[in-house]
Amino acid sequence: MKSRTLLPVAAAGLLLAACSTPTGGVPSPVPSTPASSSAGSLPYGGAPKVENPLPDSVISGSPCDALTPEQVTHDVGHAADGEPETLPIGASCTWSNTAGASLGIYFTNKRHEGLSPYYDQTRKQMKRFDVLPPIQSYPAVAYSDKPGPVSSFCQVAVGIADTADFVVSVSVGNGSTADACPISTQIAGQVLTNLKQKAGR
User: Fold this and answer.
1) Do 112 and 56 meet the contact criterion of CB atoms below 8 Å apart?
2) Residue range 57-102, pLDDT digits in tens
3) First to last CA, the chain
């Protein structure tokens, strides 16, 4: 049986058009400035502690390698090359499909605070902020500048250590009625599985 494509193939919209805070042409998943004076003690801001952390080194490479080519084809709807970019907080990679939907993965390897800034800052700035059930036992949050319960753009941050996290963003496009948050969550699970394998877990 043919597997279902995750990104809508009938979506209409520009690449990451739903993001309100672009950085170098792509959305910044968290503020790149120090969060607060409490940042010296991790976690802070109400973020949960990561009980079984992965080494920070698993997000030291390129996020373009976070998914296998087969996963990219499945998630995007066709084979696609990722577009890498260096950001103040780390590195990103973006894929888009022929219908205008898009997928982005961010390794926040230049900001070693895990999920704390999301709880401390991002939660106050977004119209939607959902604390998700743990993904493979790792804490995660979904957020968007679009109100729920159905958001055309959504980012999911997963804490793999108190000092490390990655982000998956999905834009389904304005022509789709799909909620981007469950799609982002499912792809975050794929990325996490690959990172765990990289760490020998």
Assistant:
1) yes
2) 999 999 999 999 999 988 888 888 899 999 888 999 999 887 788 9
3) 30
HSE, side-chain direction, 13 A CA sphere, residue 148: 13
Alpha helices in the chain (DSSP H): 69-76, 116-117, 123-125, 180-198
Question: Can you give the C-alpha Rg of the chain in angstroms?
Answer: 16
Chain segment 107-145, per-residue pLDDT in tens: 999 989 999 999 999 999 899 999 999 999 999 999 998
Neighbours of 189 (CB within 10 A): 17
Buried (b) or exposed (e) across 86-114, using 16+ Cβ within 10 A?
ebebbbbbbbbbebbbbbbbbbbbebebb
**Count of CA atoms in the C-beta half-sphere (13 A) of 195:** 32
Cβ pair 75, 82 in contact under 8 A: no
Question: What contacts 164, CB < 8 A, 6 or more positions away?
Answer: 53, 54, 56, 58, 59, 108, 109, 112, 114
**Dihedrals phi, psi of 144, to nearest 5 degrees:** -160, 150
Distances (CA, A) of 184 to 42, 58, 110, 151, 160: 26, 20, 22, 11, 16
Domains assigned to the chain? 50-198 (3.40.1000)
